[in-house]
Amino acid sequence: MLRFIIKRLLVTIPTILVVITISWALIRLAPGNFYSGEKRLPAAIEQNIREKYGLNKPWYKQYGKTMWNIIRHRDFGNSLKYQGQSVNNIIWRSLPVSATVGILAYLLALIVGIPIGSFAALKQNSKWDYSSMALTMLGISVPNFVLGPILVLVFSLSLYWLPPSRWDGLFSRNIILPVLTLSAVYMAYIARLTRAGMLEVLRSDYIRTARAKGLSEKDVVIHHALRGGLMPVVSYTGPALAFLLTGTVVIEKIFALPGLGNYFIQASLNRDEPLIIGIVSFIAISLLLMNLLVDVAYAFLDPRVRYH
Amino acid sequence: MDDNDPKIAGDEKQSELVWGLDVTPEASPVDPGVIAVGPEMAVAGDVHPIDEGEFVRGSSLWRDAWRRLLKNKLAVFGLVVVVVISFAAITGPAIIKAVSGITPDYIPTDDIRLVKSFPPFTGPEGKFSWAHPMGTDNAGRDQFARVLQGGQISLFVGIISTLVSLLIGVSYGAIAGYVGGRVDNLMMRIVDVLYSLPYVILVIVLLSMFRSQTARGQLVLLFVALGSVSWLTMARIVRGQVLSLKNQEFVLAARATGVSTPRIIFRHLVPNTLGPVIVYATLTIPQVMLTEAFLSFLGFGVQAPLASWGSLAADGAQNIAIFPWQLIFPGVTMALTLFSLNFLGDGLRDALDPQMRTD
Fold this sequence. Notes:
The structure holds two protein chains of two kinds. Chain A is mostly helical.
């Protein structure tokens, strides 16, 4: 197991460096500069800016300095637009918002998706199966930026039940609509994956054995079938986290939440170079580490993977 | 070719292979016109020589798949909806222009009372009117024409980007699978690494940094960005197929007769992977369309004056409190299209590759 983790880490670390390098290169290769706005700057001022941000040095020195600061000091520098704020500061401040919404949405998706998928598999080809699968297909097909405003329209602007936007911490009614919007698509995916996994498992020999030895249907499903049937859901967690991150970008924009995604969009629009590199690196690191975690969990749950 | 041609008549084996029946062409005393059964039963009576054999239609993979697809009601529904929406998107704006003279970007500047957002089927002074069945947007532009034109762009982006990903993914996967060994290992490691990248985030950086001055330029950038990130799964699928095909006799035969490696890959192997490739391509189109809409929604994708369903939805989402129809029409049209494409893709998968079905 340790060897497996070390082997995976050896792939993960270069990947993170590749991501940082790609985003750095994209920013540097793009025409223009972060200070090139509508107005042309006087040459002397431009010279000063270039000096201050080290832009007059050769590119490999700039690259080396950025990478060194990130690797050695875990420092992404200061934001160019949010004056006097360090990138690290912005990331740590906005992360809890995104993480809270993302994790709650995924948990909700698991709680709702797994039972729906299992029921559909147990009652295969029934009305329940068909209608729940059509419903999940709808969940996959309705983009969250359409669903979100429609939920706001119904629950906030027509029924006045829930606030339409703003962040007010974990224990507030503000969080309900964002979480619901974000989790819809994952509910659908998880329900479909659970159904597929369960159908496969329910046909296998060990389920027949479990039934033959006289276990109740409830025990067969909960103790035997679910464990194998949920493997696709476990392996989906990795990609789901990636999509969750992009999902939160939209959700944060719709509901005006001060999360990582919102800052990322602002940074991209403002060409706030240190903040872009900081958030991209942070997302890449957390994504890859989560993927590693998922793989370890998978290997732990399925012994066949470990010895492969 | 004559019936008595020794090559055909003498070779009983061959006629068995061709018609799947133990009947040689000479042994057909019955007049073909007499037999009144379906074509699949009529073989014994009216066996023709091969060159006039339009009657001897084998049940090919595609024919079987098509029949299976037609049995799947949801897939047929999907197919019909996709065809109708595509047709409406392609011809709609031109028809609207011919009927009422309104183009998707027409702003009624001559009458200032019309430069505002009307609800569906409503004209000035709140009267019923056929002029704008989906209402108008903030500038008084016809929403119906805009949704149809947006559909053009959305479908176009979906199809072109899928073709780009098809081109890259199929070549990459086929080469990796056929060459094998260390090359395969390296190529697939690269795919693994790319897989774990937060690619939408990188696409946003790319699109915002290289933001084009023209709407067309941005569209091209979008194709490149979407196509270049959505080929990974395709490469894996094709590689898997090629791996299972490359040791079969027909490849050996091709190699023995001196066919070059690129020709083996692209003329002999790739056509045989077509089933799964078509299925996955059909499922890639909605994914790409969704990503495009997502990017356009955030303001990185399609730029004005062009519009896609995503950018229309973005405008609508801002006015959801007062003008909900601005979001609902593009949003629902898009959801319906994606829904249908997904069902069509699922149906195609069940039809083309029954072993892949999950139920």
